[in-house]
């Protein structure tokens, strides 16, 4: 698997590259946004680790230009923990974000998740089994404890939108637009009501959800592993 790391702090760039190589990845590096964009456009990477604040071209602009023609999974690195910055990256095509300073094990876990999603692109709709819950997108069916779970059309559309992007943090705005349409992007309370309904139907403990996970103020992610193809 081939990864591009774009980061302007020399020590951090070296450490990230060394760590990823020790994990068995082929790693290319770039120290500014312009060089990073050139490499990302000229090569086919399995994942991109992209810093936000960089000289010549910041990460936002790199992401914007990259998404015009490439679907490479992108992990954004940011020194800011402000919710609007996270939402901006996700709404503009980032797959995940990590706030500095971060632990190397968390970085590796997020890179592995990006690579799993990248391999799954274009594959048949997946099936997820998590404890008592069995979700089969191809069969359009959810079961819990071996029994079919009845979902309304809207509940199914919402669950499907999340499950088609397993592990990816999806913003409120994106989910509202996908399920309800462009006129509902700001109606977060509607989304919360339907998330609550879904949790009551499929979560083992709706008060402590493990499948539909919240990132406060940002959005939700479907946190279940797909069943490997037989």
Note down, in words, how this protein is organized.
This protein has 230 residues and is of the alpha/beta class. It has two domains: 2-120, Response regulator (Rossmann fold), CATH 3.40.50.2300; 127-222, Winged helix-like DNA-binding domain superfamily/Winged helix DNA-binding domain (Arc Repressor Mutant, subunit A, Orthogonal Bundle). It has eight helices and twelve strands. The chain has helices spanning 10-22, 33-42, 59-66, 83-91, 104-120, 153-163, 172-179, 188-202; strands at residues 2-6, 26-30, 47-51, 74-78, 96-99, 127-130, 133-136, 141-144, 147-148, 170-171, 212-215, 219-222. Strand 7 (133-136) and strand 8 (141-144) form a beta hairpin. The two termini are 23 Å apart.
Summary, kept brief:
With 230 residues, the protein is of the alpha/beta class.
Number of strands: 12
Mean pLDDT: 88
Distance between the termini: 23 Å
CA gyration radius, whole angstroms:
18 Å
Task: Tell me the structural class.
Answer: alpha/beta
Instruction: Give the domain tally.
Output: 2
Strands in their spatial order, largest beta sheet: 2-1-3-4-5
Beta-strand percent range: 15-25%
Shape: globular
Helix content: 25-40%
For the sheet with most strands, the description reads: 5 strands, parallel
Give unreliable regions as ranges: none
- SSE sequence, one letter per element: EHEHEHEHEHEEEEHEHHEE
CATH topology of the largest domain: Rossmann fold
Oligomeric category: single chain
| The CATH H-level homologous superfamily of the largest domain | Response regulator
Q: What is the annotated CATH architecture of the largest domain?
A: 3-Layer(aba) Sandwich
**Helix tally?**
8
